[in-house]
Amino acid sequence: MKIKTSVVRILFFVFSLGLTACTSVSYQPVDSQLSSCLKTYQQLDRVIKKYHLQDAGVARVEEYPFLRTTRFLASFTQVLNDSAHYKEWLNMLNAQAVDTLQQEARRLPDTVSVPSERTLLTCGDQLVSDLAMKARLKSQLINEAAVPDSYRYWQRVVGLYPLTAVLFRFGILRDQKNLKQQGWPPLDAPPEGDYQFYSLNKSSGLDTPIFPLPVNSLGVPLLNSQLHSHLLSRYAPTVATLSGHDFDRLGAPLSNGFSSDNPDFYSWIDYGWFNGEVSLRLNYSIWFSERPKDGAFDLFSGQLDGLTWRVHLTLSGKVLAWDSMHNCGCWYRLYPARGFSVKAEDALYREPVYVAEPLTDYQEKVLYLESGTHHILAVRDRTEEVAESEEVKGIQARLRPYAELKPYLFAPSGLVLSSVRAERWLFWPMGVPSPGAMRVAGTHAIAFLGTRHFDDPFLLEDIGLVELSPIMQ
Prior knowledge:
The protein is of the alpha+beta class. The chain has helices at residues 6-16, 32-50, 71-74, 83-105, 117-131, 135-144, 153-158, 161-182, 225-235, 384-390, 406-409, 424-427, 459-463, and strands at 59-60, 68-69, 195-200, 238-242, 252-254, 257-259, 264-274, 277-291, 302-314, 319-326, 333-336, 340-342, 354-355, 365-369, 376-381, 394-401, 465-467.
């Protein structure tokens, strides 16, 4: 995939300020039933905007309130020449819209009338069928489905990015060198310390064969609720934190605080691409009440902290890699599966990735976290022997839909406003909105140099992950 440097993006941003927008063609159905359906979506979209309840993690498609897009959905724009594929793609955009609109609508006052899911689905199906036949709108619609990146280029312009980025690069390389020098603890023994273990009470039957996954005409998995739950349960990690401090206890963010009474793993599934095929991505987000201060001038401390662990799989069930980030988008790390390696492209304005040692493809992992910072110290396979040694200090966690966080935790900007960090005053020239603050999935910029997003469907290829030949393995 062709990579554009941020310098080019900045120049494009500056020169585009004086350009006027191109004239667009509006979608206006003639049929009265279709017009009524479009009005239903328009009214719901309008009232959600009025109450500032938009989900920043899912992008709108201008003038099409019955469609929503993501970076993955936008990645199909080069393979939509076939009319059947184009309609399938529109159906996926509508399904995303219905799901997102329902989540947003749950936050509306009880006095506001909201169309039923059945109404939205029926109208959406009719509107998509009509839109799929409007050839004159296709090119414009595909362009509108692109998702803007999560960087503010005016900050990079004002912050003299071409100069300041070089200084930041030295700091990033120094931090990564220090991490590598610390080394990983041996995987046949846990790190030292009194750990408590958070894990799911997994039901029997998780070893039942489920691969290869069923797919639609575009190669995207068709997951019913049972299969969705099965996948997330099967690959959910165990999280090990040091005992003794409240800030190291897993819990749940609340609208008015934080609770450690019910430790939850907030999960969701999305998709990417690897070697020209769709890949499955299982996401697990965990939360802590805070990152405590480490000295008087700690820029990284503050309310709420969290970590997201993700598993990348082929649709036949082969593990490609794992990766992680803090819920601010910071401290991104990649953990290749054994048999894979990273051949990174080095460039001045391209942030290098911290790549850990390859892991076995054993499906259950134990993540050992550092106290306070919640960095991952080590990753072990959760074998029967390891699991038995953890039972004495085990705490049962619950698997919850990530969508449950959205009604109360994130502002329309996508940020958790109570979690802002002092580091934002230092890192603002890199163009990331409020660096260090927790934010909603779909808005995570994970690099200060260049551009990189956690939900980029081509992320593994962009980083340089390749499968080794059998001889090299």
